[in-house]
Amino acid sequence: MEIQELAQKAAFFASEKKAKNILILDVAELTSFADYFVICEAQSERQVQAVAQSVISGLKTLDKAPLGIEGLEQGNWVLVDYGDFVVHVFMSDLRHYYNLEGFWHQAKIIPCDF
Predict the structure, then answer these.
(1) What pLDDT is attached to residue 19?
(2) Residue ranges of E strands in the chain
(3) Angle of helix 3-15 relative to helix 45-60, nearest 10 degrees?
(4) Cβ 65 vs Cβ 17: under 8 Å
């Protein structure tokens, strides 16, 4: 399965737990540590955790395990690192504060295909 397709699957699994404002950024030309960022938000810490767990368990069914997971216990901003792509699940206010979309404004936006 191609990397972009896996990023799309991650976005889909996030949507299954009602993640909002899901965005896929193509950062391959801008950084060496990932090709895509999947960014989304949730309304509560519990929902942030549920969205991240949905992505992790969904991709596990496709034999894709994360290289690392940060922030799952706190539930404010969970980062799930798959090497070629990184999933960011934010509380809404933290997403706006850190503004990854603004920081990576030169990245191409990939439409979600679900």
Answers:
(1) 98
(2) 20-26, 36-42, 68-70, 77-81, 85-91, 108-110
(3) 140
(4) no
Does CATH place domain 3-110 in 3.30.460.10? yes
Q: How far is CA 62 from CA 10, 52, 68, 90, 92, in A?
A: 11, 16, 17, 24, 29
Residue 99 CB partners (closer than 8 Å, separation 6+): none
Residues 52 and 36: beta-carbon distance below 8 Å: no
- For residue 113, the model assigns a pLDDT of 83
Nearest CA-CA partner of 43 in 11, 9, 74, 76: 76
Residue type at 70 in one-letter notation: E
Give me the residue label for tokens 């940060």: 70
> When comparing pLDDT for 92 and 114, which is higher?
92
Side-chain half-sphere CA neighbours of 62 within 13 A:
18
